[in-house]
Amino acid sequence: MGVMSDSLLYFAYGSNLWPPRIRSRVPSARFVGCGWLKGFRLEFQKRGADGSAKADAHFTGRANHHVHGVLYQMLAGQRTRLDRYEGGYNLASVIVDQAQGERRAFTYVAAEPVICSLAPFD
Fold first, then answer.
1. pTM of the entire predicted model
2. Where are the alpha helices (DSSP H) in 26-91?
3. What is the pLDDT of residue 112?
């Protein structure tokens, strides 16, 4: 894959891991590689519009917590398209660890995490 000018790195950890989903939302999205966030734990503590729990990369700061996911490169101008799908989440700048080193990317974290007994839809 060639380098896109004016591009961003996006760390996906939930439903956007699935290439057809992310490409339907952000046509320029291209797989870069796998990675993980240190000090984060995957939790289902965001209440979705359908009443189910949605994934959240919750920062704990604990060394033994990791959220695994995928890095996608995308055109910067298409980020607002993705923002519209990620309602109830805030943008966050994160350091993604990969076998070849660290990379800065953006991701989404729950704006108002809810500690409750909700279950994911699927």
1. 0.89
2. 79-85
3. 81
